[in-house]
Amino acid sequence: MYFTSLPDHTKPDFDEQLHFSKFKKHNIVFNALSSYCHCDNHVGCLSFKTVLSSEEWYGISNRKVAIRPGQFLILNDDQNYSCHIDTHESVRCLSVFFKKEFASSVFYDALHGTEISLDDPFNHDKNTLEFFQNLSHIDLELQVQLFGLISELESEGYNNTLMDERLVFLLRHLIQTHKAEAKHAGKVNALKASTQKEVYKRLCIAKDVLHSSYMDNPDLDMLSSAACLSVSQLVMQFKAVFQITPHQYLIRLKLERAAELLRLTNKPVHEITWLCGFENVSAFCRAFKSAHGVQPLSLRKCA
Length: 303
Hints:
alpha+beta; Jelly Rolls; Arc Repressor Mutant, subunit A; six-stranded mixed β-sheet; 11 helices; 51% helix; 17% strand
């Protein structure tokens, strides 16, 4: 199924039960422009979330995560969540909901190898992967897949067969992302695999707070509280897994965003300073030159 607009949950005649019942029966793609859209409580199937412009906020397990262009979020089966778009600017959203049987079949083939799949090609194992529910970067391969999917939808319309083919490749890419995440979890300084996995999940919560709220300068106490890790554990394990401390990661995020605004907008330097959460223009310019070797306006001239 294919939708080009998001449902309005506030309408008096909106049938929430009917709407959500479709998610168990079909693969569903939302490719929509929307603003001021709210869904306060949804128990969904496995789904992929991204935006092509602006931002969309998700509430997961008592935390809030902002998805912005270049990022994606995977939500697991039966995960409670909320989603909100609170801007007058239209947000271009892309969400894919995978029918459980469809996802299970793809996972079974991908994880068990060709020989086993040939011996049992119609296995109906309903198990699905449990993904790390954290923000991930859209790499070039995934970007090509997503633009191909969107282009096909907008030029050819929705065709079940063509779309299911696309979604097979999308799911297999997500499996590779999951495997890479599992390797990162193995860098946690702990003996038990279960402990490594749990600590990694908590580190990802801290990392997502940094991504979502970098402009508010979250400090170590805030990150520690959000991740349920002591400040010492947070700093040491974060450095072990991501090869950078939380503060260094925060500064890098700010400077990446500043460089993006310099290249893509005409916003003055003092406004970019404020938007990226720096104390003042002097501090911003010093940090920017240290990272990029040039002053902010010099980068804009080269863009």
